[in-house]
């Protein structure tokens, strides 16, 4: 959101510009339009895509990998799957290159319109991850990626995906012992190689080198790293790195990059939303990029020079009336099995629970959306008449298959129960167990800087607190991995298929970090 300062008249925007689990951003501009892609790891569809007209307001438009023929993540462990994409446009066509880690390796897809449809994959190689494409003005196309902590490159035939020669090293790290996430640009006759270094945690950073040749040697910037918060303890934004440059249509320069927002209640030590997409201005000094004037990136930043172009806000309440999911919704690993997910013609979602639950690296009957605010409230109504013991349906807050919390209705031999449960590694603990009088409930969760609070009732106007869990139990610092919290409705038979379907007439998410 862009807002004016009442005293100075200057405009400011709020970071992150893409809140919630949206890591490894890659950006390209076509005229006055900006498009951005992010990593998706074990979630399907793969590679969320966004559109902006002002670099601040982004709307979700599609995914690049929407078919099982493009991406099959069955059985993939958490935080494997789709790593760091690079999005580029050349000669009227969009190219998105990425890596299926633990699967098919490096590949790219193409489209005339970023909203799709996207092509079937063109496979390149099974080397290390973080591939990038660079289209030089002499017609050559370069394929650049990480290889054992250094950056390697080859020319590529985009018709076949074949490398015209073996990859060769073009640069090592500029400010650490490990380089990844390379992007190559040609600006004012110089080739610039921007890299991510220092790992993906507190030491993360963006570095840059330049050369007169795309093959190097690349001399490092005198003030590398050009972006890092590794020395800022405490700070609300940490883990900054993995940047991509873009020149706006007005001639200004900007960088999108990942970062994390941390919890001041615990000395900024914990975060749950994963790595998010941030924006900062770039200026050029002596032929080198300077990010945000060399200052730390803040949650409130001076706005770009571009006129604000906000998109209509999606409704807080999703009633699934059009028989499909919007691009903000996601599944675990594969598309839902036939019959596992369907819609009520008049509005509502039906989940037919399978034997799979949320504890395994599977594809349970679950659909979720990212947590995007520290302060939020999510609610849903569930109508569920299970027949067999073990059948359950409700609302989950999921960091991974080893770290998640549920509030649900569950059938036991002696009746229907309201249950809250925490899964922490190999420990599964019921923290609430209460007989439930009806075969429907309104279930909710409120989040703040320190905890998740779970609520339940037979009417949405009268919800009662039934449980509270410390937020740190779902933090990346405890759960590890590279994703963030995803929450939504689920159903499972816990070892056998559910006899009864679970109906969710609506799902609601309200964030109020700005309040």
Write the layout of secondary structure elements.
Blueprint (H helix, E strand, L loop, with lengths): L1 E3 L6 E4 L11 E5 L2 E5 L5 E2 L1 E7 L5 E8 L15 E10 L2 E9 L3 E7 L10 E4 L6 E4 L5 E7 L2 E6 L12 E4 L7 E9 L2 E8 L7 E7 L7 E2 L6 E2 L8 E11 L5 E9 L14 E10 L2 E4 L8 E3 L14 E2 L12 E2 L8 E3 L5 E3 L13 E2 L2 E2 L5 E9 L7 E9 L2 E10 L2 E10 L2 E9 L4 E8 L3 E7 L6 E7 L5 H4 L6 E7 L9 E3 L2 E5 L4
Antiparallel strand pairs: 1-2, 2-25, 3-4, 4-6, 5-27, 6-7, 8-9, 9-10, 10-11, 12-13, 13-14, 14-15, 16-17, 17-18, 18-19, 18-20, 21-22, 22-23, 23-24, 26-42, 28-29, 29-41, 30-40, 31-40, 32-37, 32-41, 32-42, 33-34, 33-40, 34-35, 35-36, 37-38, 38-39
Descriptive overview:
The structure is a single chain. The protein has 515 residues and is mainly beta. It is 1% helix and 48% strand. The chain folds into 2 domains: 2-302, Glycosyl hydrolase domain, family 43 (Tachylectin-2, Chain A); 317-511, Jelly Rolls. It has 1 helix and 42 strands. The strands form 9 sheets. Strands 26, 28, 29, 32, 37, 38, 39, 41 and 42 form a 9-stranded antiparallel beta sheet that branches. Strands 30, 31, 33, 34, 35, 36 and 40 form a 7-stranded antiparallel beta sheet that branches. The longest helix has 4 residues, at 476-479. The model has no long low-confidence stretch (mean pLDDT 95).
Summarize the structure.
By secondary structure, the protein is mostly beta strands. The strands form 9 sheets. Strands 26, 28, 29, 32, 37, 38, 39, 41 and 42 form a 9-stranded antiparallel beta sheet that branches. Strands 30, 31, 33, 34, 35, 36 and 40 form a 7-stranded antiparallel beta sheet that branches. The model has no long low-confidence stretch (mean pLDDT 95).
